[in-house]
Write the structure tokens for this entry.
Amino acid sequence: MAADQFACTAAVVEETPDAVVVSNLGVASYVLAEVAPRKRNFYLWGSMGSTTATGVGVAHGTDEQVTVLTGDGSLTMSLGVLSTVATADQSNLTVVCFDNGIYGTTGGQPTTSVDFAAAAEAQGVPATRVEADTAFTAAYADAVDRDGPSLIECTVEPTDPEARPTFDFPHIPRRVCESLTE
Ligand SMILES: Cc1ncc(C[n+]2csc(CCOP(=O)(O)OP(=O)(O)O)c2C)c(N)n1
Ligand SMILES: [Mg+2]
């Protein structure tokens, strides 16, 4: 089974409308821009592997919920960042890894298979694995309620969104900051 990345992304914004959502370059940002264009979307670009680390930094600077939407390829590049997530121990941080089994943004080359939930647990981050929209929604609500960071590994169908977020990169973090102080 596999969940729908659009439905899961919409569920994130519905459950935590005030969250800063830090989205992986490419597909995760395209889907987010399509289902919920909003000031607190922190779209990344070019910076594969840095989504979760960026989320740790943002969560350090705000009391608002911070949700990372990363990809399997991107998280594989920086798997050790989960030890930083555990050590930083920010209660406002949730990491979602959308595992579509491919480098979707660059044409669908297969990724290596990684057990992200096990890798997270091994580094001290509580984790769960889901592969359906309803299970994701429930897991996300639990993760947000937790008094500490956690990771959700979500198997998703590959998708090819039409939307593109703004590519004005200095503007994106500035807009996020403004939305947190206005
Ligand atoms: C350091 C680096 N290597 C490669 C790329 C090219 N690149 C951009 S997105 C991407 C695929 C990302 O895969 P994944 O994180 O699984 O997200 P998906 O596209 O599947 O949603 C690649 C290889 C890059 N931007 N930076
Ligand atoms: Mg992928």
Q: What stands out?
A: Helices lie at 5-15, 27-35, 51-61, 72-77, 81-88, 116-122, 133-145, 171-181.
